[in-house]
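tool=predict chain=A
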Amino acid sequence: MAAYGLYTHIASNKTRSILLLIGLFLLIYVIVFAGAIFAEVFQRQDRSVDYYLRAAWSDLKVAFPYATAASLVWIVIAYFFNQAIIDAVTGGSEVTRKAQPRLYNLLENLCISRGIPMPKLKVMDTDALNAFASGLNQRQYSVTVTTGLLKGLNDEELEAVLGHELTHIRNGDVQLMVIAVIIAGVVGFAAEIFFRMFFNSNSSWSFGSGRSSSSSSSSSDGDKKGGGGAILAILVAVALIFLAWFLSLVVRFALSRSREFLADAGAVELTKNPDAMISALRKIENRGELDGATSAVMEMCIDNPREGFADLFATHPSIDARIRALVKFAGGHDSGRLARPEDTETDLSAVTDETAPATATLPQGDPAPQPQAKPGPWGALKPAIPFGRRGR
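tool=predict ok
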């Protein structure tokens, strides 16, 4: 079904996300199948590729319930301890209204306006400008902001960022992303184990040797075919493991990218202030790197400055793309990228009398001409508040 409005886009995105998560979970069984190929090759090194694949498929059927149970146990453990792990990595600490009245009141007002239970509020002590939402259930939900964000943004911009993170919680993005990271972690962990087992044990045996006594009477041609079959089977297993690992990253990043546009739109829907969201993104741009944070934490942030090749491994759309969407669909106004101090530094030693701009001198006693403002049709009234901004 085609999506036309904000809420239909949210529903459509949830459906696609669930399908991607199912596909991500299936990658676990691809890893198990590849591991079964390794096991069959280690046990019998004088068979054909077809034999190894059929034997591995039979092993997968036997291992299916055990692999499923182990994955579910992993997810359950992460369900209860993921927030504690995130806090340990980021150093975020919960704050109260007394400690952060400005931040607390902004978030509380947003929650009251939409009848949303208020999540926990946490602050990280860092100069970086960033924020993220986390948690898997109502008791765990939290919004974490950095001290740099509190210093660098005004109230309207900070409210827009809080609305962005609150939208992630409302839309169920936080749950999906945490689960995606957990499942991808299973795939990555299993892939690393199999690669370590293979490379550590590869030196202790050679293809075509170490076969059972029942095959000791095989001909030399059979030895060559058997060794070749084992090598090809190993290559298939390695390719499957690499493919599963690669696809787990792509799916995880695709889930994150597709949700940022909707979170920006949700922030505007909560605050009715697209210009504040645009201004906040401009200030946060390229200033959100959290030192020591894992890639999984950076994926949850409002901006992730870490990039990959050809944008394939980018977890977030570019700031420019997000702002273009806000300008086009929310009626916002973009003043362009902000100048950074490092961009405006000038080498004064390079300025000479010849390069310095000439200044005109007026005859002494003549007053300097003053620009005359032409009266407009509304007289001396101040400019009107731009459309979409809210009075305070």
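The mean pLDDT is 76. Residues 113 and 270 are 8 Å apart (CA to CA).
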